[in-house]
Write a structure and sequence with these properties.
CATH topology of the largest domain: Purple Acid Phosphatase, chain A, domain 2
Shape: globular
CATH class of the largest domain: Alpha Beta
Radius of gyration: 21 Å
Strand content: 15-25%
Order of helices and strands: EHHEHEEEEEHHEHEHH
Number of domains: 2
């Protein structure tokens, strides 16, 4: 049985008007009820597909019983071996498989007498240049990209350092984005979400428009210039620091 868990902070990380009629949260009791209902209907194995993020998944695994494995995302961690979390009802496996199609998480479960007896997990790296493309899919991709190919290939600059987004706190591409926002919008401060995302650009490599789009063409890619009080800025930074550095 598969159970889905949406990102609990969707209305905070995205424009609230996009999900005006929905509510979100870390609802352990609701998750426990969903697991219990599935078990009651005869489910032998419960897998949660989660957008919580690794730390929240680990906490949920410690509180909710009856989940065999949580296969998560959101924080884009490349977890090479599942973390085995003990809880009141047994154990739960928790793993993430990176981002951008760089890895494929493969979990095989050995189920005996109605429960998981053993497991095998592999985080398989995907080397796209070594895998033959599906001809029909490649044709479709080429057709969609063709009208924009010239714009995507435009060289904007040459990289003199490694540009990356590999941490939840900061990265060189994060800093480049914030510097550009401050200069372009004549603002003393700029905020951009720090997360593990996108492809890296190496020293000496041209920075193309596609590299910029890769980092910024996201669901909530709107750029705004706002007036904030010092208290508002402090509260934003405190909230981010609270999420990043609290152990629990």
């Amino acid at each position: 049985q598969l159970i889905g868990q949406a990102f609990p902070y969707t209305p905070v990380a995205n424009p609230r008007h996009m999900v005006a009629d929905w509510s979100f949260g870390i609802r352990d009791a609701d998750m426990q009820q969903a697991v219990d209902d599935a078990r009651g209907k005869g489910a032998k194995v419960i897998i949660v597909l989660s957008h919580n993020g690794m730390d929240v998944d680990l906490k949920m695994a410690s509180k909710v019983t009856g989940i065999d494995a949580i296969m998560g995302g959101h924080t884009h961690d490349g977890v090479f071996q599942p973390v085995v979390v003990e809880n009141a009802g047994g154990k739960t496996l928790v793993t993430n498989a990176g981002s951008n199609g760089k890895f494929l998480g493969v979990l095989d479960l050995d189920v005996k007498d109605g429960k998981v007896a053993d497991f095998r997990y592999k985080l398989l790296p995907v080397f796209s240049n070594l895998l033959e493309a599906n001809k029909d899919m490649q044709t479709l991709i080429d057709k969609i990209r063709e009208p924009y190919q010239k714009e995507l290939a435009e060289e904007l600059a040459v990289c003199d350092d490694v540009l990356y987004r590999r941490g939840n706190f900061n990265g060189t591409f994060d800093q480049l984005i914030c510097d550009a926002l401050m200069e372009g919008l004549d603002a003393p401060l700029a905020f951009s979400p720090g997360f593990r995302w996108g492809t890296s650009v190496l020293p000496g490599q041209p920075i193309t428009f596609e590299h910029v789009a890769d980092q910024t063409a996201i669901t909530y890619g709107t750029v705004t210039r706002n007036e904030m009080t010092g208290e508002t800025v402090k509260n934003i930074l405190e909230d981010v620091a609270d999420n990043l550095f609290n152990a629990d």
